[in-house]
């Protein structure tokens, strides 16, 4: 609903459009739209991801990640995170990317 390029809408316009399009659903507020947009920009999707307080990455997973990077060092971070169902922030923390 946000759109791209010339068709981009503000979050307030998205809230109004959602309310007009789906009057039978509970209304969304601007904060919800902001969270959804932030998740899309970080993860590349808005599917529900199980939340974990502090993700524990076992040694095998770490080794597999390092081997994947060794095989193809130009693999995008988003793809690495998506393949392992990690958030980009977890991948950044593990790889110590500032």
For the largest beta-sheet, the strand count, sense and barrel status come to: none
Radius of gyration: 18 Å
Could you spell the SSE succession in H and E letters?
Answer: HHHHH
**Percent strand:** under 5%
The best one-word shape is elongated
Judged by helices, strands and strand pairing, the structural class is mainly alpha
Protein name: DUF4817 domain-containing protein
Organism: Aromia moschata
Structure description:
- By secondary structure, the chain is mainly α.
- It folds into 2 domains: 5-43, no CATH class; 59-95.
- 54% of the residues lie in helices and 0% in strands.
- The chain contains 5 helices and no strands.
- It has helices at residues 11-21, 30-43, 59-71, 77-83, 88-95.
- α4 packs across α5.
- The longest helix has 14 residues, at 30-43.
- The radius of gyration is 18 Å and the shape is elongated.
- The mean pLDDT is 79.
- This is DUF4817 domain-containing protein.
- It comes from Aromia moschata.
Question: Any descriptors?
Answer:
54% helix, elongated, 5 helices, mainly alpha, DUF4817 domain-containing protein, 98 residues, 2 domains
Question: What's the quick description here?
Answer:
The chain is mostly helical. It is 54% helix and 0% strand.
